[in-house]
# Entry
Amino acid sequence: MSNGPVIGAHGRWFAVLPDREPSHAVARRLLPYACRTLLHASGRPWLVGCWDDGPGDAVMATAGGTRLAVIGPSAVTTGDLTVRGLAAADGAPGSFHLLASTDGEVYARGTATGSRLLYTANVGGVTVLTDRARTLAWLTGARPDPARLAARMLLPEPPYPIEALPMWHGVELVPPGHTVRLRPDGGTRIERWWHAPPSDLPLAQAAPLLRDALRAAVGVRVRRRGEVWGADLSGGMDSTSLCFLAQEAGARLVAVTLEWSAAANEDGRYAREAARGLPGITHLVFPSSGIPGHFTGLGTRHPPGDEPSVLLRDRAQQVLLARLLRDHGARRRLSGHGGDHVVTPHPAYVHSLLRRRPLTGLAHAAAHRSRGHWPLGAVTRELASRRPLDAWLTGQADALETVRRGDHPRFGWGPCLAVPPWATPRARELAAGLLRETALRLEPLAPDRGTHGWVHLARRAGTVAGRLAEFGEDVGLPYDTPYCDDAVLAACLRVRPAEAGHPATYKPLLAAALDGIVPATILKRTTKDHSGNEWYAGIATHRRTLAAWAGDSRLASAGLADPAALHRALLAPALLAGGCGELENTLGIEEWLRDLDAHPHPHYLKEHASEPAPAATP
# Structure
């Protein structure tokens, strides 16, 4: 493998090329931006891009005519790959892509959670795989797809699998949990490699599995004792658990806590309690008044990622925190993102529970209904419904109207969908058409609604984790999100949902897993803070910029938004029936389109001043 510059100067990316002669033309376009190149046994380019090759970041091996690569933190070694081949990655801790070239065929997969994605497109007659959709959009000259833009405006959120579709014409996602094979004759085959394990263990047996999985996930990242790690320490159970595990692994922690202004918020108190149990920690606490406000920097154009950013509201805050953590010696940042999504079953588990154990199911349904203040009629309809996923999605397309009031039960395949008040009839028609088209080839993620919903939550978290990792690389402090590792999700899924999902208990699986490691006061916490005050203050502060966006809206230019209706919503967001979430999806899309106009070339593709990296075999 060739030695290239550090990733801090060149963004992380790669492209996988089939073992075909036409691939040379694609490689010639990519090589000026590549730090490293690996070859097929034939001598043709196989893997082109920039990635870290330090211990635990990338592993390469050759076994006969087979080339193998693991890119991303993992416990897999070169020896493992040489001896066991692809099987070495099965169940391995970490978050990584697994790639192989053997007998002229390419094998590639990302993660089941979506934290490591793969995309595919036809580039000049050659099927190319990349880890970033925008690389393929650049290679093909693709533009954003209006139907997919319209679907991203859906409320409360785009449904499975719409939310993961690439934003570009002609660029497709390899579904998480699937492999793709590129044959030398130009053929492509995509097949499923990951299936949810059975949820059949009592909590007392599942908890040790989660403890071991989290400990291993942190261990593949914290590899040297005394290594300085940045960390979020919110005072909640997810991030605090990782801090204790990281210190157990030998990390020197520099942790940050943000204290929001709502009177009942308790993050600061719990975070200080946790810090007292972490000897040697450097603990940085910031009141919200001491950091940039929400939506700071809206007038600045940023290099866009593959899709609208999850960091619209707090990008300036996170840039500041990354700089402060780097100033204290941290080179990576440990995040508890994903814990909310994977350690607690989706409420739709009640649908199956009711049929297996009616009395228990009724008790759980009543508890969830009480907590969510859901109407009895809507709860009854969802629990009685036997509609398959494809029929549900088609029904959502047929009923798609403007935003509906009130919360809806979470016992079905997904929430009731709506378009925001400023969506045009064209936007509604495009979104409904995409829902119907998707329903024609749709399979659930698991046989029952509950496991499907649980895995879907994990995939939403995983996709966001990937975006956070890209942002972290851009600001010089990469994120690590162990809760979004496949092995952690698999451990969580083993628990019986009825023992880990009752709303009267808060994250009982994680509490049992970390018992004896994390202080009991943290594990018994049942509250969660919010930054609603800061959100509305940020909207008010930046109202002039947002009003200008409405007057010169890219979504309006595409025929997807009514600028007058959008302007009214921005002037009075508190009047929106569905709250602030109604606006954030649309604002994220609007910002992303403006950033694309300002940065038409992918920012991570940086041409070398010197000769391109020479090609090499693993």
Remarks:
- The CA atoms of residues 112 and 177 lie 4 Å apart.
- Residues 1-9 have pLDDT under 50 and may be disordered.
- The radius of gyration is 24 Å.
